[in-house]
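call fold(seq) -> C-alpha cells
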Amino acid sequence: MALPDHIELVTQTPGLALDAVTVVVTVPTFRRPVHLLKTLASLAAQRTDRRFAVVLVDNDSDGREGVAAAKPLFDNGQINGILIVETLRGNCNAYNAAWLTALKNFPRMSHLLVIDDDEIADPDWIETMSRTREQLGADLVGGPQVPVFPTAETGDIPRHPVFTPPYPATGLVPLLYSSGNLLVSRNVLEANSYPFLDPRFNFIGGGDANFIDRSVRRGFKAAWCHEAPVRETVPANRLERSWLRARGIRDGVISTLVEKGRRSAQPLGSARVFVKSIALLVLSPLKAVLEARRLGSLQNSLYYVHVGLGRTLAHFGYADEQYRHTDGR
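ret:
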C-alpha cells in the first residue's frame, strides 16, 4: 500500500505472505549496524508458532548503514519482513514510519512489538509478550530492559533508577514509560491518527511515554510482563555520572511535557503543572535522602533531584536533544 513520500521501501522478503502475518516486530535503527545484526539474529531465533514479520526502519538516509547490514538478510529470507528508510530524521519519525508500514501492509496483524537496535530479545520474547496481552486483556504491554554493562566494575550503578525496571511483577499497571520493549495492539494504533508519536519529541525523547499516556487516558489497558526481557547493551559513557545526571534532567523535562499535554484542556492546567514541578523540586532532596539506602548510594538517589530540576527547567523552554546523537539513548 502507498506510504508517504518520505518513507522509502528498500526491499521485502521474496514471497512475503502479508495476509498470513499476525504479529509484527518493528525495529528502528540509526548508525548501529554491528549491533543491529545481533538484534535481528535474536528475532530470527524466536520460539513461537505465531506468524511474525519484521519491519526494519533505517533513520539515516545518508549513511544507510542499517540498510547495508540488513538488506541481504531480507533478500535471502533469513529475516521475514520489510525494510524501509525514513528520510525524516528523528526518533518519533522512525517509530511512526515503522508502525504505519505495519498497519498498512499486514491486514491480519493483531499487535506489533518494538525492540531497539541496541537490544537483544530472549528466545521466547514474542510468545511471552503476546500471551501476556491475551491473558490480561491488555492493549499495551511493557517488559524489562535488562542492562548489559561493558565491564564488571560498575560499583553501585546497576541500582540507579535509570537501570531499574518500573515494576517488579507481571500484571496490569497504570502506565508504561518506554518503547524499548513494548507491545502495541492494532486497536490502539487504529484509534490514533498518523503520526502516532508526536514529532515534537523527536530529539528529546518521551514521544513513547506521551503516546502511552494518551492511550491510557482514552481507556486502553496497560500491563507489565516481567518474564519477557530484552537485554540492552550499555555503552561505557552511560556509566559516567555526567550522563546519568543529564538523563535525570531529561526525564524531568519529559515528565513536565507529558503532564502539560494531559492537563491542556483543564482550567489553569499549565499553572497547576508548574506548581507541582516546583513542589517536587523542593521536596526532591528529602526524597533523595530517603531513597539513598535502597539505591545503594546518595549519588544514585540524586536522580530525584535531577528529575525535579528538569521538570522545572522545562517550564522555561529547556530541552536536551539527546536523540540528535548516535548514542543519545
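The radius of gyration is 20 Å.
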